[in-house]
Amino acid sequence: MLVSRTWRRVVPFGVRFVDDQTGRFVVDGLVVSGWPAREPSRRIVARSNRSAVFSLRDVPGIGDLEMGAGDDAYWSTLPRRPFVIEVEDLNRRFLPFRFAVELPLRGLLHLTCGSPPLPPGTVAMRGVPLFTAPTRPAVPGSAVVRADLWDAIANAPAAWAVVQASMPGAIARGVAPVRALADDRGQIAIHLPCPDEEDLDGGSFESPSGPGPVALPARTWTVELTAAYGHLSPEPPVTASGHGMPIPDLCAAVMQPPATLWSDHARTTPLTRASLTYGRETILRSIGSGAAPQSVLLLTPGSPP
Question: For a tag on the chain, would you pick the N or C end, based on fewer CB atoms within 10 A?
Answer without folding.
Answer: N
